[in-house]
């Protein structure tokens, strides 16, 4: 038997099992030498991962190689290209700016689900629509999908059209990542078993399936991402973005200390970037301990998020932090010009009970109201 295998190049497909295995070895060898992959190399590997052409062992080693080696701009854009190309896209018909807010996770602080509560409250305000993209938790206590599943929101692919309709008619829809990125099923179990942040945590928030997304609030726990993500905004087609990180490492805007806020704009081919340090004290928000945001388990996280949405944490630190993050959504969606104004708009909506009414209306329209009723009784 001949063993004269021509060294593989990164063409569209692995042409044989032997060639694919050799290619894997070359990729892992490069990573083991602390060398970065180029755009084409990493895009090809991720394309083959999403098509189910890679073993669990290779995927695990590859992901850990990227964790240890770090990921640069070229690799970052290559992964985004591959995942977005393999995704199922939707285009909700809305006259309002369509916004997402999503964090990378991985801060390991066990806070309740702040961004999900903020998304619902922001979307209950007028003249804005939110397409919340998310998943179940892979490294924390509770992801946005865990909350929505618990209250009866449909997560299966049969409801893809109703989710788009929900965005169009009610201003909010939750896009369950596995439905729109079916190829990533090949890595979900591996990510769960690894239990740490991988490149998917960094990339996931940047792969919203809506083709007409206007703006996004992106929370990062890794300070290095503050430099990387703003450069990616133009290739995402976004007009505005806000990349945020608290000084204690939360992938949200925090009331426990100061926050780095990077404002990015991309209009008519003109790229703008501005950085500010936001101190909640300047907004009249008392400084609190991170312990006041932490929860014990998944159900505790879900219930605390719902209590804020239902106005049961009036003038409480947990309400304050959610309103601050709601304000960020309103700013990038051109609904508010400042954090002061955004918080005032969000607080008024909450006082009037609009987030609760939105949730009830939405679940009644496309979900399972009996699950929401049970959830409400547990509050």
Your description of this structure?
With 379 residues, this protein is an alpha/beta fold. It folds into 2 domains: 17-85, Up-down Bundle (Transferase, Pyrimidine Nucleoside Phosphorylase, Chain A, domain 3), CATH 1.20.970; 98-181 and 200-373, 3-Layer(aba) Sandwich (Pyrimidine Nucleoside Phosphorylase, Chain A, domain 2). Helices cover 47% and strands 12% of the residues. It has helices spanning 17-32, 39-50, 56-69, 73-85, 114-123, 144-150, 160-170, 177-180, 185-194, 199-203, 225-236, 298-309, 317-332, 339-351, 354-366, 369-377; strands at residues 98-103, 129-134, 172-176, 215-219, 240-246, 259-267, 270-278. Strands 3-2-1-4-5-6-7 form a 7-stranded mixed sheet, with helices on both faces. Helix 5 (114-123) packs parallel to helix 12 (298-309), helix 7 (160-170) packs antiparallel against helix 15 and helix 13 packs across helix 14. Mean pLDDT is 90; it is low at 1-12.
